[in-house]
Amino acid sequence: MVKIYAVGTAGSGKSTFVGAFAEWMEERGFRYSLINLDPGADELPYEADIDIRQWFTLPEIMKEYGLGPNGAQVVGADMVALKIEEIKEELERTSYDYALIDTPGQLELFAFRESSHHITGKLGDEDAMLAFLFDPVLSKEPSGFASLLMLSATVHFRFHLPFVNLLGKYDLLGPEEKERILDWSTSDNSLYEALRNEDGMKAHFSFEVFKALENIGTYRKLIPLSSMTWEGIPDVYSIAQGIFGAGEDLTAD
Ligand SMILES: Nc1nc2c(ncn2[C@@H]2O[C@H](COP(=O)(O)OP(=O)(O)OP(=O)(O)O)[C@@H](O)[C@H]2O)c(=O)[nH]1
Ligand SMILES: [Mg+2]
Questions:
Q1: Measured from the CB, is residue 11 less than 6 Å from ligand 1?
Q2: Tens digits of residue pLDDT in 199-235
Q3: What's the pLDDT score for residue 121?
Q4: Fold for the domain defined by 2-176+220-248
Q5: Ligand 1 atom at shortest distance from the alpha carbon of 38
Q6: How wide is the angle at C-alpha 13 spanned by C-alphas 25 and 110, nearest 5°?
Q7: pLDDT per residue over 94-111, tens digit each?
Q8: What are phi and psi of 223, to 5 degrees?
Q9: Domain locations in the chain as residue ranges
Q10: 3-state SS of the chain?
């Protein structure tokens, strides 16, 4: 079973992506499981087959441990890992080709806590990949875009799983913005030029960041994604299929 983890900064569109991907699969008669690992989720735009909130929610953790929302998020992230055996058992009751996994709003909890490795490892990381959503507003500025590349590289470095970078909420960007951002993602020259034109200290720092990115070799095409128009969803499916060869061949469609 191929597992696709939706990751990204708070509000980048992870949950909506999971919901849209599920609808897209549903329309094609594909079979999938939806897993919510975010105990802080209020309302989800999809019906989860396995929902961490069936065991605990953020308000419950806050109350039980006398914590504020941030402390409770940290405890919640570790508590998810403690439930992973049960999640795995539930998942194994299905024999679907795909599992779409929604992660907590705070990217750093998923990216930096050891419990996340426990989660991906237990669920099986040999057929798992990360779909990293770029926030479109942050992506509009060269330094914001470079920061997201850095963040995505950091997440990649932490997990060593195949991943795709997605330019989220693509429908919200204007034609010129779309072209500019996609250009930055494929041509290091154009990103370099854009960073150079940013002002003062920021430009110097951005340039150093740029050099680091260039050395790491994180240049890769961003896939435009809109959970509203479904643009990009077939691409994510095809990439997953290309890596793992699971599910039905889209080209046969
Ligand atoms: N126009 C547009 N809006 C989107 C898209 N994806 C998400 N949104 C909106 O962006 C907001 C945040 O989306 P969510 O899916 O909740 O984002 P999230 O990353 O799960 O948020 P947290 O879990 O709170 O971090 C919602 O109002 C969504 O309707 C998209 O592709 N296009
Ligand atoms: Mg969410």
A1: yes
A2: 666 777 777 877 888 787 665 679 999 999 999 999 9
A3: 93
A4: Rossmann fold (3.40.50)
A5: 23
A6: 100
A7: 878 899 999 998 898 888
A8: -95, 120
A9: 2-176+220-248
A10: CEEEEEEECCCCCHHHHHHHHHHHHHHCCCCEEEEECCCCCCCCCCCCCEEHHHCCCHHHHHHHHCCCHHHHHHHHHHHHHHCHHHHHHHHHCCCCCEEEEECCCCHHHHHHCHHHHHHHHHHCCCCEEEEEEECHHHHCCHHHHHHHHHHHHHHHHHHCCCEEEEECCHHHCCHHHHHHHHHHHHCHHHHHHHHHCCCHHHHHHHHHHHHHHHHHCCCCCCEECCCCCCCCHHHHHHHHHHHHCCCCCHHHC
Taking only the tens place, the pLDDT of each residue in 139-179 is 999 889 988 998 998 898 889 899 899 999 999 999 999 99
Model pTM score: 0.94
Which residues place a Cβ less than 5 A from the ion ligand 2? Answer: 14-15
**What is the reported pLDDT for 209?**
78
How remote is the CA of residue 105 from the centroid of ligand 2, in Å? Answer: 5
The finding on whether 233 has its CB within 6 A of some atom of ligand 1 is no
